[in-house]
Specification:
Layout lengths: L1 H22 L2 H17 L8 H22 L7 H4 L4 H35 L13 H31 L5
């Protein structure tokens, strides 16, 4: 059973890490879009109607799909002044006790996201900008990002629960 839990955690970690590595390349796409707009607007006096919204969508992808990677590598904000002074077992206990809050938030986020994706697909929803791209792709990315973040949080919950019960690290 312990080996199965370890394998589950390591698989989730691997997926989060690899997606994060891939996602970080999208920042170059974002830079390219913004540079294209600046050159187009200021050198050729021909601004685009799509660049600002496309940049926001690429950044949304970067932020949402990169979230599990950030969680995996401890990049999210935490009250380290207190937390870092605790023993690993006490930190794990606090994390186990706070996991239901995170899980409830992400589950609610995903349920709402599912309804939003369903609506966007059913009614072929488009942005209300002049460019008017379909909204379903970025809504799907939002839903997937929330799911991946929940999986990464679950990976940490399994580890933390193991630490609380046994006093040893799972991985």
């Amino acid at each position: 059973m312990v080996d199965l839990l370890r394998k589950i955690c390591l698989t989730i970690d691997f997926v989060s890490h690899q997606l994060g590595r891939l996602t970080r390349l999208s920042i170059f796409v974002l830079i390219g879009i913004l540079m294209y707009e600046v050159v187009s607007r200021y050198l050729f006096n021909s601004p685009t109607v799509w660049s600002t919204e496309m940049a926001a969508m690429v950044f949304g992808f970067y932020f949402l799909i990169g979230g599990p990677f950030t969680l995996l590598h401890g990049g999210h904000v935490r009250m380290d002044v207190i937390y870092s002074k605790w023993s690993p077992r006490r930190r794990a206990l606090v994390d186990v006790l706070t996991f239901p809050l995170m899980a409830a938030y992400l589950t609610t986020f995903m349920v709402g996201g599912f309804h939003i994706v369903n609506y966007a697909l059913k009614f072929k929803q488009h942005s209300m900008s002049q460019w008017a791209p379909p909204l379903a792709p970025i809504e799907i990315v939002t839903l997937v990002g929330g799911g991946l973040l929940l999986l990464q949080a679950l990976s940490f919950f399994i580890r933390d629960l193991y630490m609380v019960i046994t006093g040893r690290s799972l991985v």
